[in-house]
Amino acid sequence: MFVYWLQGLGIKVLLSIGGDSPNYSLSSPEDAKEVANYLYTNFLSGQYGPLGSVTLDGVDFDIERTEDYWDNLARELDYFRQTTGRYFYLSAAPQCPTDPIYYLGKAIATELFDYIFVQFYNNPSCSVVSGIPALLSSWDRWVSLVASNNSLFVGLPAAPSAGNGYISPADLNTQVLPYVKQAPNYGGVMLWDRYRDLQNGFSNSILPNVIKSKLKVSVVSVSDAIYRCVSKALNRVLDY
Q1: Catalytic residue list
Q2: pTM of the model
Q3: pLDDT tens string 206-228
Q4: CA 159, CA 146: separation in Å to the nearest integer?
Q5: Is the distance from CB of 18 to CB of 230 less than 8 angstroms?
Q6: Residue 63 forms beta bridges with which residues?
Q7: What domains are there in the chain, each with its CATH number?
Q8: DSSP string, 32-78
Q9: Cis peptide bond N-terminal to 224, omega within 30
């Protein structure tokens, strides 16, 4: 299976929940607990689930609708990794604005996320649409907001068609990476998406200048048919 193959290469495979689907939410702390139990049992425990008997390496919060109770979900998932003897990763992919942080502010404030992949695109005020200084200024705000034990990644479009805020590999290598790598919690670069990355050759053009983190991550896609099993309130598990 593809997941096993990736993990055999040392790549961490995370399940991404949320995305740009128009209708999903958590309705209560109890709902968050139910969703956490479902996610752990079906994707993180090794029991047979929608992907077979795989054990994924963590859960990524790509939340773009509502803010309530995602912090509860993070705490419930953290409870599983603290009490089951098997550590797995929690990551978040917030948009770059910080005043306020869209949708994930409460969750990120828990300081439970190992990795935070900030999307410096599709928001002109904090992306290269407003110039490289605007992106770096936003990066500084994120460095000051995020806990020191949370690795911070620069999230960018892998091609002009992938999002509003594309920066060329050459400019990233010379004008952005030398600056952001000075942050003590710098983790690396996140690209959206892998398909366009392969077409554009983006990651190959920046890799020698990125390395400060040994994390290699992929994202598993799951069909919309799964979502009904997760929660009455959570209307879609994945958007990839």
Answers
A1: 64
A2: 0.87
A3: 999 998 755 555 554 433 333 33
A4: 27
A5: no
A6: 19
A7: 2-230 (3.20.20.80)
A8: HHHHHHHHIIIIISSS-BTTBS---SEEEEEE-S--TTHHHHHHHHH
A9: no
